[in-house]
Batch of 2 targets.
Target 1
Amino acid sequence: MLERAFNKCDGNFGTSGSVIFMFDHTCNFTVKKEDITVDMEELELELIDFEVEEVFDDEEGVIIYAPFEQFGVYSILF
């Protein structure tokens, strides 16, 4: 049905990877707050040394965004 609507209006879905430039390739980790034994500011400063991009304090825990290329290193840390 959706494909029919695109065809009717001369639209297309695009090819695989045609919008890849619109997204960042990152790895994301969520750590439970009870598993963190240091102050949030201290944690952020430590993670900066490991090239972590963002650290957010959320109700689910601490969310950490890092470069995808470093996934193996961060998966060992967290």
Target 2
Amino acid sequence: MGKRNILIALISLSVILLIGTSYALLRSVQVGENPYVIELGNLEVKFASNQTENLVIKNALPMSLEDAMKEEDTLSFVVSNTGSIEARYNLYIKETNGNSILKNVLRFAVKKNEADFGEAKILADNKYIDYKALIGSGESINYRLKMWVDEKADATYMNQTFSGKVEIESIQSEGYDDRDDVLNSENVKIIDRLKAKAYNEKEMIAINKDGNKCESLENCDVREYRFSGKDVNNYIYLKDNKSSNELWRIIGIFTDDDTNEEYLKIVRAESLPLNYLSDNYKVNGNTYSLKNSENNLVYWNKLTGTNTDINDFSESGLKYFLNNANDDDNTAGYLNYLAIATKSSLKEDVKYSLGSVNYNENTTKEAFTNEHDINGCIDNVGGSTLTATCQIWNKNKASFKGTVSLMSPSDYGYAADSSYWDTKTLSDYALEEVKNSNWMADINNIWLLNAATTNQNEVVSLNEEGNLSNANVYDNTLGVRPVLSLKYLTNLIDGDGTRENPYIIFE
């Protein structure tokens, strides 16, 4: 038969459909002489009465397509349109246990209503069960999902686990390709407005799991959405504690690894003004030198009374100033300079990866991998060299969770045209041709988030010429442009993202 003799031990493939969350809201926006009329309804996934909510395959054997089609185990469910309007929808498998390598050898096939099972797909290449499917008002569509381990799987995939869930996304039956309803209507979430730009390839680009531009969103497993290119309309207003507008810029839309919640990552359009900064900052009994009174710039991590400190942002004086109250004055610290309305829209405990980057050797894609490929990294181990298994300096943390952070080197890299992401090292971003394609090219003289690979006292930065460089955390001083994350539920009030008319998210 088609089964191999290699047993992939303890593979547990689980496609989990959660009844309470497998819903998508339908909205029809009608435009005429009268104000908008909005009709609402639901798309929902229902399971067949004789089915459990899980499809679990344990101790799986690789098998051929022919043998897989003979297997009886399938997951049956129904998509129902309970609204009064017809709609289009995407139905797809979303991974829930990290980036499992099993996706490369997991195949699935789908049977829709009375049709035969369709062409088998590799999950890593195509996550969609159904794409742009049309469903009428009151209609129900039946699905059967069959999944197995492909016969090409070898011992590399032993003891691996994949788990995921089926999600449904509603899209409008009319105007989907332009998403005119989202681009032009009022009272939408800012993330939805920006994703509409991505679907139209208007300034915002969808990026897949491999770090490449999605050439088509139809078969793309999207990792994030970013503004890329020189002329982008990504300006947004936040309010400080005096209710004055601060100008920020949107980096992109990202997804929380732990909660799968989307959030908006933004960076201040200018460095922090001097009145935000104090000379010293005291946290947990330690006093950090913060501002250099001679040039009014900022140390990254200078513990008072020492001539050395490490490039671990999670333990740095700058991180404490941005996220924590001062021991001697709980009204100090960066977060206290933001308005209450602004703080209520911020996503807290965002995970930031702290892998080290070599800007002379790394392309943008490689920098992102080095920043984030921290699986198996051990925090606070002895020594003072990069570990052999990951890009984390010994004694440093692999990541930290906080509200405020800094830009990463890959944030700078992905802001350039996608043609440079894997063809130029980050040091080549000093070239005029690359700068002319990068909306961040005018940012200079600031600290970045990630450690350098040169030694444990240096981090990557942008120098006075706006080129990537390394800087000493306790000896050099640079400007600070904080990075914040806005919750998915943040509504867009007004604006088109231009500098003259920034997005406004507060009245």
